[in-house]
Model the fold of this input.
Amino acid sequence: MRKLLITLGIALAALIIAACSSGDSDSSVSTTNDGEEQAPVLRIDETFTIEQFEAAGFKLNQEFDTDTVPLATNVYYGFADRRDIEIRKYASHADAMSAGVESALSVLGRSPASNSGGGIITSNNNRTSYHAYLVAGNVVMLCQTDISACENLVKNTISGG
Done:
């Protein structure tokens, strides 16, 4: 119950910050969000596709099943700027801010070797973990160490809708 309240508080704070922003859609709150810090929310009115991220430099490695990621329509794993990145696509920004943020918070900081199945298993059977995330439009991006590689991908995408 406490975790749900914290998640809802973070989501509400993100919505308030997005609503009160000065129009600079590329500004961010922090460069790391492992733990209690709030994730940046960028370009809230846009709907992103995996093709836009690939054109911006994301190297798609594989697509995962969405069964364990509530409301996600697609889950992609790959890398950019030599960092592992998972892109979780949702039908809307609202879904990304609710189920997407809650799901991201549940995997942040999990040890790659933990028995709880932290992180994801890549195509070469390595396990990776994420220490940061951000929300951009209809996607939640899990970032290996900090949000810089994820921010760069969002900044380099061409508006598509």
In short: The CA atoms of residues 119 and 129 lie 4 Å apart. Strands lie at 41-42, 59-64, 72-80, 83-90, 120-121, 127-128, 132-136, 139-143. The first helix runs from residue 2 to 20. The chain has one domain: 2-156.
